[in-house]
Amino acid sequence: MEKAQDSARRKQVRSAGIASITGWAMDLYDLTIILYLAPTIGPLLFPAHNATLQLTFVYASFAVTLLFRPLGSALFGAYADRNGRKQAMMIAILGVGLSTAFMGAVPTYATIGFAAPILFLVLRVVQGVFVGGVVASTHTLGTETVAPEHRGLMSGLVAGGGAGAGAVVASLVYFVVSAVVPSEDFGSYGWRVMFCTGLLTAAFSFYIYRRTEESPLWHGKTSGPTVRKSPLRDIFGPRYRKTTLLNIALSAGSATAYYLTVGFFPTFFGANLGISKTTSAMILIIANVGVMVGGVLGGHLSDRIGRRAVFLCFGVPNVVLLPLLYLWLASLNSDSIALVTVISTAIAVIVMAGSAPVLIFLNERFPTEIRATGTGLSWNIGFAIGGVIPAIVTAVSPSVSDIPVRLTIAIAVAAVVFLLAALSVRETRHLGLGERDNVQPPEAAVVVADGA
User: I need a labelling partner for 300 at 20 to 30 A (CA). Which of 30, 271, 289, 396 fits?
Assistant: First the structure.
């Protein structure tokens, strides 16, 4: 009997882990396709003779998606807290896939004028709402299902493994499409093919979710009176307001570092280093394997030494190390492919390792009945802030050649913000995920202790 129960438990954990990682990967795949196509679709959708302005439009449309992710988290997070993580995931991922595919059908500026960029931006808004829904439910399902001693590892697997896998798949698709479609035709229909693959990712994810069981912690909370009608009131209320604000600051520092490094690599390699599409795709595959390694490393360490300790162990050296590595990378060109690959992979590992425990850290700061909403909003508001920064960096750069220096400055600022946020929070590993009722947020616990 016990063996059967253990087997069923392992199957449930494995299924939830696969579903969470798959959802995160497919979400990141659909979200980041635009980064691989930025130099191509900029001139097609935006009327300008200035390459910097065209890149700014593309990154602004990327940022628009991130800006609307908090709305998706509020809607789908509340839905997941009331109706379950699994159901929310299934609806959200279908919305992401369909909105991504429709982007591949948008006519160019030459065909319909300013309606082209407007239509594209509308679809990015819709995608952002659904992406926020995916983020609000995927990580909670995985971390709530796995055993307490492996929750940091699950966090790293979802954030690093999922993000890395999604980017690797995007790189592979980009490599294949670039190799199959002639260069002169890529601007005609090759970029459309990449967006339309969103339908395939949605179908695959939906198949995985259908076979996934609901979170056992959510099931345990749905029968009592603790299920709330409005999680937002608690998250921004007196009890959790400070917790939420610190969560957002930590997420924003982490997101900005990611989007200015790994997220900017697809454009940076081509526009600044002069590396070809196919070669860039291969470098990106290797770099995103580094993202996976960093996620597993940081997540596993957080199970051993604590979430906050990992933030500080990587956050302190990254204030200096990340800007130096990026300046070194910017000094290279297409004749130094091997060195570009090594440096970009090293950057990917240290950026992801430092932020790998963020998801579980956020989860541990909210009780089960408001966890999907609280974590989703904290994460997505932070990533909305981080996602806007690449557009700002490109907008304030007089020319493409000026981008690296401004990127370096922004990366240094992001590293400082992340470090300050990490210094301001308290350890959460001991709090668990709802095994004990009436969990107090760390800041509230400190106030109570001081008052006593």
Answer: 30
Alpha-carbon distance 334 to 340, whole Å? 8
φ/ψ of 151, rounded to 5, equals: -70, -35
Does residue 172 contact residue 44 with C-beta atoms inside 8 Å?
A: no
**CA 15 to each of CA 127, 170, 213, 230: distance values in angstroms, whole numbers, following the listed order:** 26, 24, 7, 30
pLDDT of residue 332: 93
For residue 341, what pLDDT band results from cuts at 50, 70 and 90?
very high
Structural domain boundaries in the chain: 12-211+232-447
Answering whether pTM is above 0.85, one says no
Distance CA 20, CA 13 (A): 10
Residue 201 tokens read as 């990712």
Task: Return the structure tokens found at 422.
Answer: 């990490």
Question: With contact defined as beta carbons under 8 Å apart, do 28 and 163 qualify?
Answer: yes
Q: For the structural domain made of 12-211+232-447, what CATH number should be given? A: 1.20.1250.20
SS3 366: coil
Say how many Å lie between the first and final Cα of the chain, rounded. 48
